[in-house]
Amino acid sequence: MRAIRKLAPEPGLTLIEDVPVPEPGPHDVLIQVEAASICGTDLHIYRWDEWSQHRIKPPLTLGHEFAGTVVVLGEAVEGIRVGDFVSAESHVTCGTCFQCRTGQAHMCPRTQILGVDRDGAFAEYVSVPSSVLWRNDRSKIPPEIATLQEPFGNAVFATVAHELPGQTVAVFGCGPIGLFSIAIARASGAAKIFASDINTYRLQLARKMGAGFLYDPRNEAQGAVEWFLEQNGGAGVDIALEMSGSPEGIANAFRVVRNGGRVTLFGIPARAVELDVAENIIFKNLTVLGLNGRKIFETWYRTRWLLESGVVDLHPLITLETTFDDYEEAFARLASGKACKIILKPQREPIDVPRPSEEEEAADRALREQDVRGKVIHR
């Protein structure tokens, strides 16, 4: 099969034509990949930065955001059929530690991540444990959107941790997760949504996704505090979502939130960040959440409803759909800052696999509708 791999501890990737198709174990499934999206993590590995040098062990096939069709089942797999259209939770957890056994699998200390700690989905086929599979309804979610559920779930987890209706929300960092969060806040009834970034292209996307106020610290004569207070009628915002990981973004999130407000820290800083805890947290009586990943699988149910219902449309954030052959151009465009989500496709004819019958698909849809019936966007 073809696969995009990190072959050596150095910058760059290689498209290999003759990688062996993985053989699924007893509890695994083999998936023919239909679409895979590039994540910021993949860009870090492509660049071979300091984090990658300490974490990645080549050779490795990248890619952890994907959608495809099940083509082979391990002998012990239950509840999955050949022909199912699936995505996957990228965090493969141990299932036995304290966190896994108490409903906190997203915190499992022995997590392996697809495309980081084990071969991923920038390939024609990927083998994953059946325990991480998520079945999709192809009639409601096409492959290019199904592949975005994994990163979109990050934003769902970080954003719906707050009561959003009627609240003023500031999002610092308009990368994909920040842009997803803006769309979720709008769909959830936020009163005002502010977006902050130093990338003009991303701020334009923020406007498309529902932000009514855009702040670029490079272009504004006012500092963040003065600008936000002026735009918000003299008051700080109710909720600040920090999605950039930049020291300035983190500092501004704490500065512009009102006394008694809430801050979510989701962006990952590249280095230690200094913060005046007394002035910025204690004296302001803030609630601060440090979050990572998604709740497995609680967040996925919320994600499904938001996308299948059409409440959130992610198509405006897909900058480019291309094939594995053009991966170099895709990574270059992402690195330029003039792209949001880029979808890669293996470019091959789908193999002929049995599809579920109409009766089976109807039963599956009924189960999914039962899963989300009565659920609301906010807690």
Structure notes:
By secondary structure, this protein is an alpha/beta fold. It has two domains: 3-148 and 314-372, Medium-chain alcohol dehydrogenases, catalytic domain (Quinone Oxidoreductase, Chain A, domain 1, Alpha-Beta Complex), CATH 3.90.180.10; 155-290, NAD(P)-binding Rossmann-like Domain (Rossmann fold, 3-Layer(aba) Sandwich), CATH 3.40.50. The protein has helices at 40-47, 50-55, 98-101, 143-146, 149-159, 176-187, 200-209, 224-231, 247-256, 277-282, 298-308, 327-335, 358-372; strands at 3-6, 14-16, 28-37, 60-61, 65-73, 85-88, 91-92, 112-113, 125-129, 133-135, 168-172, 192-196, 213-215, 237-242, 257-265, 287-290, 318-323, 341-345. Helix 5 (149-159) crosses helix 6, helix 5 packs across helix 11 (298-308) and helix 6 (176-187) runs parallel beside helix 7. Residues 372-379 have low confidence and may be disordered.
Q: Any idea what the shape is? A: globular
CATH superfamily of the largest domain: Medium-chain alcohol dehydrogenases, catalytic domain
Number of strands: 18
Alpha-carbon distance between the two ends? 44 Å
CATH topology of the largest domain: Quinone Oxidoreductase, Chain A, domain 1
Average pLDDT reading: 93
Low-confidence stretches: 372-379
CATH architecture of the largest domain: Alpha-Beta Complex
CATH class of the largest domain equals Alpha Beta
Q: From the helix content, strand content and strand pairing, which structural class follows?
A: alpha/beta
Task: Describe the main β-sheet briefly.
Answer: 7 strands, mixed
Number of domains: 2
Q: Bin the helical content.
A: 25-40%
Strand content: 15-25%
Q: Rounded to an integer, what's the Rg over CA atoms?
A: 21 Å
Q: How many H/I helical runs?
A: 13
